[in-house]
Amino acid sequence: MNKRIYTWGGVFADRNYTVDDLRKIKGKKKLVQTTASTLEEAEAARDAGFDMVLCKSPIIKTVRLGAPKLFLTATIDLSNFPTEKDVLNEAFKAMREGADQVYTARGPHIVEMLAKEEIPVMCHLGLVPRKSGWRGGLRAVGGTAEEALKLFKDFKTMENAGAFSAESEVIHEQVMNEITKRTSLLVSSLGSGWNGDIIYLFQNDICGEEEKQFRHARAFGNIYSLKQQIKAERISALKAFKNAVLEKNFPNQKETIKINDDELNKFINLLSK
Questions:
Q1: Mean of the per-residue pLDDT values of the chain
Q2: Cis amide leading into 129 (omega within 30)
Q3: Structurally, how many domains does the chain consist of?
Q4: Residue 179 sits in which domain range?
């Protein structure tokens, strides 16, 4: 049942879940989340019955239009909003435009700043790809007892900073299971096994839009093949057009409009005066 809310933008709206709802069902119900970068993708997530959708903060209005009732997370890009003021301004803008929580890959000081404004915050723990240099590259996190304990402490740090949820990326499955049971954060598992509160995968991965998949992803469709067919068809059509022009077969009588012969003669006479 949808819940009636009053948004930060000052309008009434319906949501499938509120922050309070999600806190209450942690550990009781498995949720699914995906990304949307276009109106079409947002509508697809909605029509497929997804619980949650995530998008970049500049396109919230478009995604909200396609998925008006889904719990929406707005991601505040790591590099485009470098200062605390930048992040805070973008977070307020995101909430005003219809987000239900904001995502940041920044540290606990940023999470705390946003939480103090009562903005629901999704932090990022485990593998943070843009910070992978600190971990020796793109790899799974929590493979040793010491690293797993450090990761658990990171979860607790984010809890204490006021985070509401955590994108938990490429963490060893058993470690993710133990941490999920011991954290109040709503755990969104991206490549970290089935034991998170939310199972999350990018829409382009789900739909098979790339030729190759990451190890933690699985394609449930084959849009890549369709795109290749469209690409081939586009090239074929363009070549056919070019050849038709060179062979004086386009445009022909069907694609042109001719003036009445009498009017044409009058026109030519006028030109010669």
A1: 96
A2: no
A3: 2
A4: 3-221
Is there a single domain that holds both residue 241 and residue 215? no
Same structural domain for residues 168 and 66?
yes
Per-residue pLDDT reduced to its tens digit, 242-257: 999 999 999 999 999 9
Confidence of residue 1 (pLDDT cuts 50, 70, 90): confident
End-to-end distance of the chain based on CA atoms, in angstroms?
A: 80
Cβ contact 161:111 at 8 Å: yes
Task: Calculate the alpha carbon distances from 148 to 27, 185, 215 in Å.
Answer: 21, 17, 21
CA angle 218, 223, 226 (to 5 degrees): 145
Q: What angle do CA 196, 202, 68 make, to 5 degrees?
A: 90
- Half-sphere exposure for 77 (CA within 13 Å, toward CB): 7
**Any idea what the Cα angle at residue 238 is, between residues 234 and 240, rounded to 5°?**
115
Q: 77-81, 84-88, 98-102, 114-118: which range is least confident on average?
A: 77-81
Q: 221, 241, 258 — which closes off a domain?
A: 221
Cα–Cα distance for residue pair 52/34, rounded to 1 Å:
7
CB 191 within 8 A of CB 164: no
Checking if the pLDDT of 168 tops 90, the result is yes
Cα→Cα distances 23→90, 100, 110, 164, 198, Å: 25, 14, 22, 9, 12
Residue 223 neighbours by CB distance under 10 Å: 16
